[in-house]
Amino acid sequence: MQDKAQPEDTLIARTEGAIARVIFNNPAKHNAVSLEMWEKLDRLLAGFADDAGIRVLVIAGAGGKAFVSGADISKFESERATRAAADAYNEAAQAAYARLYHFPKPTIAGIEGYCIGGGVNLAVCCDLRYCTEGSQFGIPAAKLGLGYGHAGLKKLIDVVGPARAMEMFYTARRFSAAEAYEMGLVNAVVCDGELDAHIDDVTGRIGENAPLTIAAIKAASRALADDPENRDLAKLDKMVQACFDSEDYVEGRSAFMEKRKPRFKGK
After folding, report:
1. Continuous segment of H or E residues that includes residue 101
2. What domains are there in the chain, each with its CATH number?
3. Amino acid 148: pLDDT
């Protein structure tokens, strides 16, 4: 395991073989996010995206009580009190959200406890979301008088549909893990204490599969969620063809015929 963190770090980056992990580490404030944390997240994601050895990214929160509880309200006076300061904060947050949403490899949100406001936005930027039974979800923007950007709203609508998204915003109430699963916000709900094992199982399965195939599927899913005029279908076709032209395709066929697990290299 490679651990790039210091104990006082509010954002921790770790690599465990082919798995990269980013952990929000502000448990005293339920992992609320500051401007500095958004900026660091953007840098970390850029580095992991360029690392050919990384096949899966996991986002989680420290402390066992929260995934991410949104913006650090205690820093609003220092980071968002003026229009210029608010714009700088929003720009940093949106850059990090975009970097995560377009991360070229599979991304997983491991949610334990509160997933509130920006935490929900962070989660829906990931491909897969798993939570514990005691997790709670909510978007309290209407209770705080905050404006909420259309990019984040669209991502939530893409995941849960417009009616459920509107309910989350209009009521600003907390939703249970069971409700989150029912609306499609999370892929599965696991027993408390079993989240890490469940995510390890999922990342292990993903890591055994062909990286080029997965990259093509990820790119296509993001393109199809975009406006039609912005879709580069020719690029997607090239990524599909690259799968058929790859050594991994040969390895996959050979492994199937030989009744063994394939050893994919992403080439």
Report:
1. helix 83-101
2. 2-206 (3.90.226.10), 209-257 (no CATH)
3. 81
Nearest to 79 by CA among 142, 36, 118, 121: 36
- Which residues does the chain have with pLDDT short of 70? 1-8, 72-81
**What six digits make up the tokens of 142?**
């209407």
d(CA 33, CA 69): 8
CA 238 centroid distance within chain: 26
Residue 12: CB partners within 8 Å, gap ≥ 6?
3, 4, 5, 21, 22, 23, 25, 62
Beta strands in 32-82 (DSSP E): 56-61, 66-68
- In order of 12, 40, 137, the CA distances from 77 in angstroms are 26, 21, 26
- According to the model, what pLDDT value does residue 112 have? 97
3-class SS of residue 225 = helix
Give, to the nearest 10 degrees, the angle between helix 162-171 and helix 150-160: 120
Do 71 and 120 contact (CB within 8 A), yes or no? no
Q: Which two tokens stand for residue 120?
A: 């929900």
Rounded-to-integer distance, Cα 109 and Cα 215, Å: 18
Measured distance CA(92)–CA(106) in Å, rounded: 23
CA quadruple 57, 61, 62, 65: dihedral positive or negative? Answer: negative
Q: What DSSP state is assigned to residue 21?
A: E
